[in-house]
Structures are given as structure tokens and as C-alpha cells.
Write a structure and sequence with these properties.
With about 325 residues, this protein is mainly beta. About 10% of the residues lie in helices and about 50% in strands.
Length: about 325
Amino acid sequence: MNRASLIVLAFGISLLCGCSKTLTQSRAANLAQSYVDKQNEGTVGTFIGALTNQLGPEMPQPLQAAGIQRLIQAGYVEERKTTVAYPNFAGQFSGGHEINIMGSSHLDDTLELRTVATSKPPQVQGSFKTCFFQSCEAGAVNGVIQRNGPSNLTLTFQQRENPISDRWVTRSRTLNVSLVRGQPDALVGTYFTGQENPFVSAQNSAFRASGRAEGGDIQQEVFVYSWTNKLPKDTVQGAMLKMGHLVVDACEQLLLNSETTARATCKTHVKMTSAAEMIFGKGPTDQPMEVAFGKQPDGNWLVTSVSYQPPNYQLQ
């Protein structure tokens, strides 16, 4: 089941009036509609997280989805372009970190980094070497620079599967670091090493490497999207779209479960508001609804429960 809200309407004798002693398909549809209308005035809401997740965060590229562009043209969504700065990791850095190998041991680290400023967001590439006395591991560095907070850099290298094996495997470690400007500049954060052999457990160690970062911050344009005041109030609440009114078109497959209970599958659609239709699009809103009926002691039928799943929103 998707994250669209599931409406399960509970038994309520007092909600319905005009009950009939003969339960036909037509009467079943009328009873179902009356029941739905008593629940939040028959309003249907559906989850639109695929859209709302795009609103607010800085996007490195303009959003091209037709659903976004439609809302911009309607004046419901605003697109703003601004320039932001990313730290420039390019440079040579040396330092180290501690690791527990039969007690605390110091490992020496060196990194030679360059940035790819044309990537959005900027990327880090380069090489690294980590040495424990005369034993060293060396390989490639890759990562994406974060504008706010530390960036994850992946260190990839070849290593024996275990200390006595002739088989070589590709391993990776992770640096989670921020660039701290100063005299000298420094990469500060943590160095994560997984369990690479039976003798050393996975460890996350404090890391610091000093050097000189080449060049200033990297300037890039980003795009930010947000709702405008033109969107009618309460159309969207959080990640839920208030679509409109649920209409019961017809009930079919009306069957008796017992002398006092029955069930039917009803066809429905949503009569959307103009704003909701602009957000949801022109897609169909037809959905089946399972309805349960019960007979009262006086012989009149009423709805005891309704199970309905609203239409699924897709950002296209």
C-alpha cells in the first residue's frame, strides 16, 4: 500500500437517515454516498510527497518535470535562482588518525585532492595514502561536496583479502570531513574503517589533516522552489493534497453475507477543486470502494464500514 491516506470508516448508526428495507444497487450507492458525506464532508486527501520534497531544498539544476512547470505557469509555485558558495577541497593535506590494533596506534594520512567545479554540486577527486609504519595503502578519492555540513569522501584501494591471503580485493573507507580555513587549512572529521580482516574491528576515528586549500570557495547557481500565496488556503497541508469531494457513481456486485449483512464494490471518482486539479493533473481519479452493510432490527439497511484508497499521485 502506498502512503496515500487509507480511509476506513467505522460503524455509525446515527449517521444515516432515510434507511430502506430493500437493499438494491441503487439504494446501496445512495447509502454509501450519504455515509461518505458524513466523514469530513466527503473530502479526499492524497499524499504528494514526490512534489513537496522538491519544494524548499536547493536544487543544482532547474526542475523540468511537467508537473512543476505547470504549477509555475499557474502561479502556484515560485522558482528562485540564487548563487551559493561551496568549500573548495582542492589541495594537499597530511595528518592522521588513531586506530585500535592491539592498543591505540597512529596512522599517517596524506591526500592530494582536486575539485570538479563544473559538476553540480562540485565533486572531489584525487588520491590518498594511509601508512602504518612502512605498510601503506593507497588509492583513489571520490566524493560530492556539501555546502552545509561535512562531506563524505570515499577512499577506494586494493588490499589482500586477509593478511595471509594471495587474493586481492577492492575495499573502501569513508572520510566524513569539513574544510576549516586557517593557518594552515585543515580537513577535520572522522575516518571510518570497516572490518577488513578478523583481527581489526570496524572503527570510526577522529581525523585531521592540515595543508593549504587552493583557491577560494566555488560559486554556483542553485534553484529553490516554493508555494506562492496564490495557492488557495488548505489546498496542501504538509505533504497532503486536499483533492475535493468523493462521488459514489454506482455500486455493483451486491451480495448478502448473511440475512443481516451485505457487501458491494462501488465505483467512485473525485470531483476535484481547480487548484487540486492543477496539482494532481488530468489523470483519472476513479477508484473502487468496498462497502459493508448491516440490517437493523427494524429491517432497515445502513452502511457499517467503507474501505477506500485515494488516487495515487505521480510527479510527471
